[in-house]
Design goal:
Blueprint (H helix, E strand, L loop, with lengths): L4 E4 L5 H10 L5 E6 L3 H13 L4 E5 L5 H15 L4 E4 L14 H29 L2 E6 L14 H21 L4 E8 L21 H12 L10 E4 L6
Parallel strand pairs: 1-2, 1-4, 2-3, 4-5, 5-6, 6-7
Helix pairs in contact: 1-6, 3-4, 4-5
């Protein structure tokens, strides 16, 4: 890990920021992606640099394929390579399914599914050349539950599609020593959650719970782990 370069999308704040800071403890460089809030991204960069690691804030609208590809190129130009890609970017929309518009569907699918696909396509050629890579896509804890979703339907569809993409890429890239996995958080502190959730672990998840799972899948110890969905939810909705 001491020679690996990391890119975490949507890492200027929230979960992405925590993942970037956690991976910065062992990586040789971290690219911090943001879409609009440069000030927050630069703050994340400063916190990474305090750990003695180089970092850079890079802007891109990942719903546009050309911008996603440019983000990968910028990372490779800045650090010389890209070894670990964490596709964290992806907003959620709470809205009744019958009230959804085509714009709603397009926005959520582009942000949660297409953006990861665009970044993966752009990052994989370099990983194949180096015969080493880690891709971790961020899902959500109910991604494998094919059930009714009255309020977050486009998000659920996008994340389930992302899981299928994850497993498809994992199967095709394993021979090149590239692993592709998903980490799926449950209800997190400060996040969207239902009233009085019943969580067997007795608490909401913390950002570091998810970041530690990402760190494991990024590590040499997880070299033979690919195509999995690692749920980090304290037993919620089992």
């Amino acid at each position: 890990m001491s020679e690996r370069v990391v890119l975490v999308t949507g890492s200027n704040r929230g979960l992405g920021r925590d993942i970037a800071l956690t991976l910065a403890e062992t990586a040789s460089g971290v690219a911090v992606h943001y879409r609009r809030d440069r000030a927050a991204a630069e703050e994340t960069v400063r916190d990474i640099e305090k750990k003695g690691r180089p970092a850079a804030a890079l802007a891109a609208d990942l719903t546009v394929e050309e911008e996603a590809a440019r983000l990968i190129r910028k990372t490779e130009d800045r650090f010389g390579r890209l070894d670990i890609l964490v596709n964290n970017y992806g907003p959620i929309l709470e809205k009744g399914w019958a009230e959804l518009t085509r714009v709603d569907w397009d926005r959520i699918l582009q942000a949660n599914l297409y953006s990861a696909w665009f970044c993966m396509k752009a990052a994989l050629p370099g990983m194949r050349r180096r015969e080493w890579g880690r891709i971790i896509n961020i899902g959500y804890s109910r991604v494998e539950q094919l059930t009714a979703f009255q309020k977050i339907l486009p998000y659920a569809v996008a994340k389930t599609g992302l899981l299928l993409l994850t497993r498809s890429a994992a199967a095709s890239e394993a021979a090149a020593n590239i692993t592709v996995n998903m980490v799926s958080p449950g209800l997190l502190e400060g996040g969207v959650r239902p009233k009085d959730p019943d969580i067997p672990a007795g608490r909401l998840g913390r950002l570091e719970d998810v970041a530690h799972a990402v760190r494991y899948l990024s590590s040499p110890e997880a070299a033979y782990v690919t195509g999995i969905n690692l749920t980090v939810a304290g037993g919620w909705k089992l």
